[in-house]
Amino acid sequence: MKFKSTVYELQKTLKLLTAVVNYNHSVLAFRYLKVFVNNGKLEIKGFDNSFVASVFPQFSEIEDDGVYGLVLAKQFISLINTFKSEEISVSIDGNICHIKSGRSNYKLPLLEEEKFLSSVGPLDLAYYDIEYKNKPIKLNSFLNRAEAVSHCLSKDDYHANLQHIYIKDNKMIACDSVKGAVIDFENESLDDYLIHRKVISCLNNVSDTNEAFFTVEGSNLYVKAKNFIFAASLEKIVYPYEMIKRYIGDFQEVKSYIINLSTEEFADKLGRVLMFADSETNSVQIAFQEKEISLIVSNNSYAEEKISSLGQEFKKPFVLYVDGKSLRESLAKAMSNAYWHTDGEEEVQFIYDGELLQFFLGLTK
Question: Taking 70 as the threshold, does the pLDDT of residue 122 lie above it?
């Protein structure tokens, strides 16, 4: 197996898989990339414990169908990223991966197939000539909305079912059982799908999202860009639908109190108090009092900003602690979005659309 590429194009290709491979995972296969040629198509594949992702780059001089190698991802990617010359060639001969660029020559050992299959099993994604049976989706449109809700995804591997964006009834939903976010996303072909946060991270590494489209066929997601195709398997696990189903309908129907604020003023003052927040938690206290709210950070320093409500008076005092950095980043998207945070039996929801930020407060039970 052999292919040639510019160093820059190979580095861009591998960047798409950096969110998939886990350099230190206890399962051996998750630390490796599979590089092979099938029917004249080069494929570089990475494995995760919950999905598999592949890139099909359009490089030159691709040779030797059926030959493949399992190369240690950390070693391979780190080496490629150090090169600065124009051209690079990669070939596999026996149990060795040969890498040549300029006057550099490296030989990397390959993993034996038996050790690989015993740890991961036969996971494969076939090359797909995208015909767009379903309506293609602009990648930048999808990623903009995904980023607006992804700060609510769980980062804890013990809660794997909360690491996915869930698309249901033309809405994109993310939650980690304490906080969550919903945003409108009208696309019937993606309805009822789960997309892992690491897949989103892979797609964020596409260099030109304006020229890239994706579609879903079967249980796989395919992205077609100018010089490559990216594929990833979608999740088949059961999503905790009962946890979030009340947020799919009309938020305003079940809320007891409403406070309207200027999104710009709120984001500006939130950013100011964040300068004094703990750098790890970014915790900010939001205190609701009558016709205003206070944004407070109290540790070694004390910072407080007050904002007047533009709407209904709020008569029931309520204090909420939020990750101020995540909330501010979400507000910066300036798109119609809903965000909720549950604290005991109390619940607060933020809905913002352009200049107006609304708070809905009520009981979760």
Answer: no
Query: Does residue 348 contact residue 357 with C-beta atoms inside 8 Å?
Result: no
- 316 CA to centre of own chain: 37
Alpha helices in 281-335 (DSSP H): 324-331
Q: Give the SS3 label for residue 186.
A: coil
- The region of weakest confidence among 46-50, 186-190, 240-244 is 240-244
Q: Which residues pair with 352 in a beta bridge?
A: 337, 357
pLDDT above 50 for 41: yes
Residue, of 55 and 350, whose pLDDT is higher: 55
Q: How far apart are CA 354 and CA 332, in angstroms?
A: 10
What letter would DSSP give residue 140? H
* pLDDT attached to residue 121: 46
Please state, in angstroms and rounded to a whole number, the distance separating the CA atoms of residues 187 and 168.
9
**Model confidence pLDDT, tens digit, residues 221-249:** 888 887 788 888 776 555 555 555 554 44
Q: What is the pLDDT of residues 324-335, one digit of tens each?
A: 887 777 676 655
Query: Please, are residues 180 and 340 in contact by the beta-carbon 8 Å criterion?
Result: yes
Cα–Cα distance for residue pair 340/359, rounded to 1 Å: 9
How far apart are the C-alpha atoms of 255 and 245, rounded to whole Å? 15
DSSP letter, residue 239: P
Residues 6+ apart with CB under 8 A from 116: 28, 29, 32, 34, 70
Contacts of residue 346, defined as CB under 8 A and 6 or more positions apart, other chains included, come to: 318, 320, 361, 362, 363, 364
Beta strands in 81-176 (DSSP E): 87-93, 96-101, 104-109, 137-138, 164-168, 171-175
Inter-residue contact 175 to 183 (CB < 8 Å): no
Q: Tell me the pTM.
A: 0.69
Residues with Cβ within 8 Å of 302's Cβ and at least 6 positions away in sequence, in order, are 276, 296
Beta bridge pairs of residue 186: none
Q: How many residues in total does the chain contain?
A: 365
pLDDT at 332: 66
Q: Which of 6-10, 29-33, 110-114 has the highest mean pLDDT?
A: 6-10
Cβ neighbours for 297, distance < 8 A, ≥ 6 positions apart: 273, 274, 276, 277, 283, 284, 285, 303, 304, 324
